[in-house]
Amino acid sequence: MRYRAFSLLPLLTGPLLLTGCATNAIQLETAGTVQARSREAVSATTIYFDAIERRRREAAAALVASDPSCLPATPLRIQVPITPTAPPAPLCLAGGTPAVGYTTFEIDIGSSPRAVLEPRIALLAAIGGYADALAAILDALKTDVSAEITAFADQADRLARFTNFVAGTDLPNVNATIASEQGQSVIALIAFANDLAREARQARDVRALVVDRGAVVDRALASLSVQVTTWGRGAARNADDLYGNALFRTYLRNRTSLTAEQREQLAIRVFAAREAAKQGPVRAAEVTDAIDLTAKAQAGLRDALAGRLSPQQRRAAARMNIDRITRALGLIASIATPV
After folding, report:
1. Which residues 6+ apart lie within 8 Å of 174 measured at CB?
2. What is each CA distance from 232 to 116, 125, 237, 248, in whole angstroms?
3. What DSSP string runs through 27-70?
4. pLDDT of 128-184, one tens digit each?
5. What is the rounded CA–CA span in Å between residue 68 and residue 245?
6. How far apart are CA 8 and CA 14, in angstroms?
7. What are the C-alpha distances in Å from 147 to residues 132, 151, 196, 202, 203?
8. Collapsing DSSP states into helix, strand and coil, what is residue 86?
9. How far apart are the first and last CA of the chain?
């Protein structure tokens, strides 16, 4: 929820200004710090995604190998028992109807956390740079923020390469209405960023555009928060659960023919898949928290730009919200750290 300009005044004239920077946890970041934190966050999550992709490929191969009925193709139609007395049946179903006592579950071997989270993290990093520019204007109203705004527009444009993300169709568990809202909000955000870039050399014009149209950032972030929360509750765990079960099935079927070392290696993969199933929702929650913190920061900066504040109040708003942005980027980077 956005705060009106007058609602900022009690906050900004309180302890934050009275105690000074030396005794307050909120400090104005030096130029370039947000960009550096953004790079660190993206780099950390890339390492995390690479590790997850390797593990998922291995687990997908184990899923296919766990039953002769399965082929290395995607999507796979898995037969899942729905009654405790269901007789044994092949794991995979090539066509036709499922066996008596079974239902089918279709999984896409290629679906992964990277496909879902990467464009959303890229968008957060882009908005972090945008917020940095707003804070710079608050700190000094005539500051040239063309570099920061141009970088924001370039990053927003690059999001178009995530076609399904922009179209709002990359989250199958999110209903069509939310998906449509995502597509519209992202397209509006890209247009806003490009318009800002054309006015970037004039801080006054940037400020006017932000006050007039900056709510498009609110809508984009609100849409992202809903999507990641929904994904984290279901899809983030389901695939890893299924892979873990498939690995365990392979272990059961082949343990007597495997050596002790082979059983150990397979057991390690079972435990890794089950751990990933627990961590998926945790990582999604961290991304959601980062989105919400970013939303508060950029909305707070926009309100401060629209208000009639003293130079000290503007700088206090800049400090508070840059701190929020850097904490949000820290949350993003933390998803690469084991729980």
Report:
1. 182, 226, 227, 230, 231
2. 10, 20, 7, 24
3. -PPPTTHHHHHHHHHHHHHHHHHHHHHHHHHHHHHHHHHT-TT-
4. 889 988 988 888 878 888 888 998 999 888 888 887 888 777 776 677 777 787 888
5. 16
6. 10
7. 11, 6, 11, 12, 12
8. coil
9. 31
Query: Is cis: bond before 172, omega within 30 of 0?
Result: no
Indicate whether 125 pLDDT > 80.
yes
Q: Can you name the residues that pair with 92 across neighbouring β-strands?
A: 78
Query: What integer pLDDT is reported at residue 157 of this predicted model?
Result: 87
* Model pLDDT for residues 284-294, shown as the tens digit of each residue: 888 889 999 99
CB contact at 8 A, 204 and 144: no
Q: What pLDDT score does 116 carry?
A: 79
Instruction: Name which of 87, 41, 85 is nearest 327 in CA terms.
Output: 41
Strands 102-107, 76-81: parallel, antiparallel or unpaired by DSSP? antiparallel
- Its pTM stands at 0.71
Contact in structure between 149 and 200 (CB atoms under 8 Å): yes
- Helix H or strand E encompassing 131: helix 113-139
**Cβ neighbours of residue 244 under 8 Å, at least 6 residues apart?**
59, 270, 273, 274, 276, 277
Q: 239 with 74: CB under 8 angstroms?
A: no
The pLDDT tens digits of the residues spanning 317-337 come to 988 998 899 899 888 888 776
